[in-house]
Write the structure tokens for this entry.
Amino acid sequence: MSAGSWFTGLLLVALAATGGFEAWRRAGVAAKYRQAFERFQQEHGRVYRSIEEREARFNIFKANLDYIESENAKGHSYSLGVTPFADQTADEVKETFLGLSGPAPKMQQLWGALQHLGTDRYSGADLPASVDWATAGAVTAPKNQGQCGACWAFSTTGALEGAWQIKTGNLVSLSEQQLVDCATNGNMGCHGGSMDLAFKYLEDHTVCTESSYAYQAADSTCQESKCTAGIPKGLVAGYRDVPIHDEKALMEAVAKQPVSVAIEADQQAFQLYSGGILTQACGAKLDHGVLVIGYGTENGTDYWKVKNSWGPSWGEKGYIRMKRGVPTDGECGIKDGPTYPVLKQTKEPEPEHPDFVAQAKIAV
């Protein structure tokens, strides 16, 4: 055998071996995706209607997994993960889960149907270094709106739950389903609504407890006449707003009680968020109602702590921390019109302000 033939044969063997290795590598990568998808299906109870739908969802999942790994490799202050939305596109999540309807709310629009009791301009007082109303016992566990665009109802009940607990000392989980079914004064149930119309409705109605009027994630017939009162009729006195783009004013308001806000949540980084402080530029096209329940600082980065309505398997057990200190609109538009409810005086004595606020005011 000539030297040239020997070299050609060796080259062919090497190419065959390389091709085999590459095929083996590709098979391993494909198996990784399939295994991850199967785990996702099991953890989130996914059952698809056909093989074709399953393959379509797998391809979306694969693209999202690539995005997660790519973004996590960049060393952000936040991490992404396989959330309940990992088999959906950002547009699908927007259509199904982001139910804040109407024009982008600005100051006095979120609760404008109620009596305006003033604007919380920053007083200049020392502010607590950190606030966490969940730790203080004024926030119910994260809830899950499911495939129903009722975020507006969850933001409404969350604000009232906090206000009621701070005023009376009693934390009561309130009914979102009551708002979905009954607050049809311009709201569209699972197809969207707004906090202002929800609060206008509750101004003249008893607020039902969650246990007596359970959430169904679907539109149904109003059953509030059979429910147990969580907040008696007539105790929602009005609202106070916070000047837009004013971070100190929002911090001062949050130090008093949880605050309803609207944000833009149609970005992939938000939907796949799993922990840390979100610093992703996400605009201010407000499409999702949430609840600011605190703020703080971690490793030199200031943040807002926000309660979402996508269940405890999303984010940090249902919460997200978003960067604080972003100019103008704030991270995802969080400073574009925060508001909170004011309750009338009850017969029960009001509890003293939680100790953590008094202590935090010293540590400024």
